Prior knowledge:
Oligomer: single chain
Coiled coil: 292-359
Largest sheet: 7 strands, antiparallel
Keywords: Coiled coil
Amino acid sequence: MKFKDITSEELIKKINALKKGAECHPMWGTIFLTITPNQNKVLPLEREYKPQHDFAGRISQYYQNQRNNKNFVQKAEEKLRQNNFYGQYYNNNEASLKSHLNLNNIGELDEKIVLGLIKLLIDEAESNQNGAKFFFKIIQPSYNTHDRFKNTDQITIYFDKYSSLSDIVRLSQKIESYLSSKIPENTIKLGPKDSFGFNSFVSARFDTNKLLAEYCEYPFFDLELKKFFDRYSIDELNHIPIGALEAVFNKIITSEQITNLGNREHKALSEQDSQFVQTEFDIMVHNPKNYLDSVEENNLVKEEQKREIEQINEIKQTIYKFNFDFNSCNTAEEINEKLKEKTDELENHAKSLLNLQKTVDSTIYDTILQVIAQKNLHLREAAQASLRNLGSPTLPISGQESEHLLNKPSLNPHAVKKFEQLLKKIKDKADELTDLTSLGLAKKQVALSLYTELSHEFQQYKSGGTNFETFKNNCDNYIKDARPTLEIHRDGGWKELFVNILKTIASLGTIPLYNYCSSQGTYFFSPVKTDSINRVEKVESAINDFQEKADQPPLC
C-alpha cells in the first residue's frame, strides 16, 4: 500500500506495534503525528554535564545566567530587530538545531519503506550504543500533497540538548544508508526554510532563539553551521553536546564586532564576520565546558549580579522569618517603641529590595514586596491587640486599612489597569483569528469564551462578589481549559500572555498602603485578606508550574 492510501488511524496502530514502549498519537489540530520512543536512556554527555539528575545541568545553568543578565538580553533583542529578525514566542527544552527528513513525493512511497524508517529512528533513539536521544513527528498521510510537505520536511527530529554532535551526524548517515537502498536519491534536497543538510535525505535548521524564547529562521547561522560541520570530522565532535551550539549563536547576536546579520535577503555573513564565527566554533570545540562557563562580561552574569541575587535570597529568608510578637512589652510605650523599630526594619528591607530591582527582574521580586506588606499589616494588628489587652488606646488606622478590616476590595490601580490591558489583548488576538478551518474557528471560539469568562470573574472580584482565592482559581482553570486549543501549532504568543495574566493576578491582591520615602519611590503594599502570605505563595507556585508546563516539548 502506498503511504498516501493509509489512514492516520491505521498508521498510528502500525507505529505503536513496531516496538513496545514507543508511543504515537496525533498532534490535535495539526497535520502531524508525534512519535516518542522510550525516554529512559541516559546520555554519556548528560552524565558529564548534568551529574546530579535533580539539579540543573551545565547548559541549563548557562541559560539561567544569560537570561538574568538584562543588558545581555536587551543587546540581543536590539541587534536582531535591527536586522529584521522577528520571531514568534516559542519555548522548549530541546536543542535549537533540529533535523528534517526529506522524502520526495512521499505519498507514492510504499508504506513499508516509511514504517521501516520510523522503526530505525525508534531503535536509534532508544539504543545505548549511541549518544543521541530524541523524539520526532511525521506528516499525516492525508496531507502528503500539501505544498509545504510534499517533497521535504515530512519528519522533524527534536534532539535532547545533551546529545552528541557526532552521533547526530552518524544518525543522518544511517538514515541515508537505509533510504538509499530503498529509493532514488532526492532531487529536492532542502525544505523551503533550510539552508544546509547532511545528505540528500537529511537537512537541518537552527530555529529557536532560547535567549528570547523565539521561533524564527536564522539563515546566517545555518550557513555558518554548514561550514562548521564541513571543517570537522565526526570523531572530533564526540565530546560536543548539541546544546553548546547555542552558546556560539548567542555570541554572534551580542557581539560588538558583528552588526550585520545578513537578514533574510542577503542571508550570509561577510567573510570577515564568518571568520570570527568559525573562530568561536574552534574555541568552543577546544573546551565546550569552559566556553559555557566563560566569565566574559557579555556572556554571563557579572559577579556583582551574583552577589545581588544572593542578597535577594537573604532578604527573602529574613522577611519570611520576621517576628512581630509583643508579649515581652508591658506598657503602651514599649509597644509603640517596638512597633517603630519593626516598622523601620521593614522599611529598610523594602529600600534594599528596590535598589536590587535594577539587576534582578523576576516574580520573586514582586512576591517579596507583597510578603513585606503582609508583615507590615500583621505587625500593626499585633500591636493593636497588645494595646487592647493593656486597656490602652489603639493606633489610628488609615482609610485603606479600614476598608481592609471591613473586607471591601481595594485593588492596586496599576494591576487593575494592567489586567484590563491583558483582557483587551485577548479580545484583539481573538479578532485577529480569521482562519476559517475547523482549527481556526475553534481557536477563535475558545479565545472569545476565555475573554468573556475572565472579564466576568474580574468584574465579580472588583465588586466584592468573590474573594481573591476564588477569582485566582477560576481564572487559572479557564486558562488551563483554553491552552490545549490556543497553543496548537506555534502558539503565537498565548503562553507568554497567560504567564503575564497570572503575574498580574498576583498583584491584584494588593493595594498601595503608603509611601515611606517618596524621593526614593519605596512603596509598601497591603493585602486585601489576612491570609495573603499563603495566597501569594500559591500564586507564585502557580506561575512557576505554568512556566514549567510552557517549557514542555512543542506541539508541532
